[in-house]
Amino acid sequence: MKKYICLAISLAFFGSDSLAQTSKNRIQLITKTKENKVEVVVDNKPFTAYFFPNDSILKKPVLFPIVTTQGTTVTRGYPFATRAGERVDHPHHVGMWLNYESVNGFDFWNNSTAIKDRSKYGTIKHTGITKSSSGVGKANLEVTADWIDTDGKGKTLLKETTKYVFYANGNQRIIDRITTLTAQNDEVLFKDVKDGMFAIRLARELEHPSDKPDVFVDANGIETKVDKLDNTGITGKYHSSEGINGEDVWSTRGKWVNLTGKIKNEDISVAIIDHPANVSYPTFWHARGYGLFAANPLGEKVFSKEKKELNYKLAPHQSVTFRYRTVITSGTASDENLNKLAAEFAASK
CB-based contacts of 246: which residues, under 8 Å, 6+ apart? Predict the structure, then answer.
């Protein structure tokens, strides 16, 4: 018992900063204003970039691309850097992002330049960089954004502040995203729906092998066809903290989910970790075999057989914070390793 008390005290004191203490990796944040991005570079090699082009190109800020320690891109390239053999469905699935399908009836998730009538779609507009600090083992980036209805031409529903913490140590890269959303002058309703909230769209090689083509329909009736493709080299497999594997992870709850696979000769693990302070912890997983890997804490009825709908609300000027950790490993990440990283994340502020 004494051993576990000491561990808990240690985690509470150090939190996630312990990740950087043994690292010798230099992380630099390089702002490129003309390219609308902040590059994250580890020992002069690309890791990721905070990418915020104007809303005529992309309807939200994202991290894109995301790269392992060996230089392998784990995110899908389409539609900005398409690679041979990729799927070209869901053009709104870009890199890593956070948004939601129904916010006061406006769809922030599915909005893209492929939508013709965007009157019921919302846009998240980057509004500023408030902090950028490089360092050894750890770097911080803090940004702001507005969630605006009617395709970004109407009312601001939410003000967003987001803190990214980037870690580099050995064969692992870690991204913590802490996002606070504050309602403005009106109540904000996040309807209990499927598409949300924190997500990554993965490279083709990390998808599950596809047995059949499929058609997906969003909340506004827009269809997207996902074709069956050549499964050569397609090796993805989900595994959750609750011991659930493969596509059975979808719609289940878990503290974390780990996706393993191989790109060329590199074993890769991409894990998303939930935080105990989040709404509806442990989250539901909207993890699809075709490459969408998402945590949705606000879909309760839609993911379960319960009759209760969450329909999460913010009163005017009320705030809510969402916290997620993503662990990108060149090699394998064991359950023990992820449980340790989850405990450290839980102890962080």
Answer: 208, 237, 238, 289
Residues 198 and 294: beta-carbon distance below 8 Å: yes
Distances (CA, A) of 299 to 137, 305, 329: 35, 12, 29
Tens-place pLDDT, residues 21-48 = 888 999 999 999 999 999 999 999 999 9
Query: Where is 200: in which H helix or E strand?
Result: strand 196-201
Between CA 108 and CA 196 the distance in angstroms is 9
How far lies 194's CA from each of 127, 157, 176, 315, in Å? 28, 20, 23, 23
* Average pLDDT rounded to a whole number, residues 150-179: 97
The model carries a pTM of: 0.92
Query: What does the block give as tokens for 335?
Result: 């359950």
Residue reference for tokens 């502020």: 349
- Coil vs helix vs strand at 108: coil
d(CA 254, CA 250): 10
128 — phi, psi (to 5°)? 170, 160
Query: Is it the case that residue 7 has pLDDT exceeding 80?
Result: no
Give start and end residues of each alpha helix (H) in the chain.
Answer: 2-14, 18-21, 149-152, 335-347
Buried b (16+ CB within 10 A) or exposed e, 33-52: eeebbbbbbbeeeebbbbbb
* Burial per residue of 63-91, b for 16 or more beta-carbon CB atoms within 10 angstroms, e otherwise: bbbbbbbeebbbbbbbbbeeeeebbebbb
CA nearest neighbour of 122 among 102, 133, 135, 107: 107
Cβ–Cβ under 8 Å, residues 259 and 206: yes
CA dist., res. 64 & res. 77, Å (int):
9
